[in-house]
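Please decode residue identities from the backbone states below.
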């Protein structure tokens, strides 16, 4: 009997591209599983970390890891070696800031007393008034003491008063700001087209005189010309206008930065 030849089965399996495709699908699955696992937060650990941050007040003060090109002035409490992280209780931080503010108030009070004593000793109370503000101590000189009307050149008769102020400024290291003020009467001349120029020029003349006569560091001084924009009293009478035409020498609070705009 003749043997029947059976056909050979040719099982090649899945196409080759299926291998690559299955690998890709597996990798994507693993990737998303990892993302999901990383998104799960251990609430117990998270609460413990949050509580530790709250106790140490790290969230109130956390310095930048990136150095700044122009860092700002450090507050006085940081200069003294205190940071908010050192306080165990938030109430301790509050007490510290209150004490620090009280110290600054004491400094201003002491400066005001020194200025008043100096004005009394030199019989200047009739021509120079001193006021205490949040910025520091403000010395007010009327226009007629230092300048002719509409002019910004210091009169020879006004130099003795500036000399006594220069002696006073030699006693304190504080930054000084000189501010010029006028009344509302319009000013129009070739040299001073308006009250802005006149008030600024008067402040500049006072600073120039003090720096030249007492060799003060010019960086210690700044000036402002406010024109008629900051009157002491309404400009409705001649007497009131006289009060508003003035130069103010502000002996700034000792903790005020030199370039601060006050």
């Amino acid at each position: 009997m003749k043997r029947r030849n059976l056909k050979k089965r040719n099982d090649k399996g899945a196409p080759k591209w299926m291998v690559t495709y299955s690998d890709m699908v597996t990798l994507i699955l693993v990737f998303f599983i990892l993302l999901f696992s990383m998104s799960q937060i251990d609430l117990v650990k998270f609460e413990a970390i949050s509580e530790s941050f709250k106790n140490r007040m790290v969230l109130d003060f956390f310095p930048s890891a990136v150095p700044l090109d122009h860092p700002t002035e450090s507050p006085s409490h940081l200069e003294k070696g205190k940071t908010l992280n050192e306080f165990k209780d938030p109430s301790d931080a509050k007490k510290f800031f209150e004490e620090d503010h009280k110290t600054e108030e004491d400094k201003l009070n002491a400066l005001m007393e020194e200025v008043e004593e100096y004005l009394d000793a030199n019989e200047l109370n009739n021509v120079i008034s001193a006021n205490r503000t949040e910025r520091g101590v403000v010395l007010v000189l009327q226009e007629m003491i230092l300048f002719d009307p509409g002019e910004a050149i210091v009169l020879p008769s006004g130099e003795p008063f500036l000399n006594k102020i220069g002696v006073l400024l030699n006693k304190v290291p504080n930054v000084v700001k000189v501010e010029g003020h006028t009344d509302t009467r319009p000013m129009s001349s070739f040299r001073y087209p308006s009250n802005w120029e006149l008030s600024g020029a008067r402040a500049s003349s006072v600073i120039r005189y003090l720096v030249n006569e007492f060799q003060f560091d010019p960086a210690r001084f700044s000036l402002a010309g406010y024109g008629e924009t900051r009157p002491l009293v309404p400009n409705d009478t001649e007497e009131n206008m006289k009060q508003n035409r003035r130069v103010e020498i502000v002996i700034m609070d000792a903790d005020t930065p030199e370039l601060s705009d006050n």
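Observation: The longest helix spans residues 90-121.
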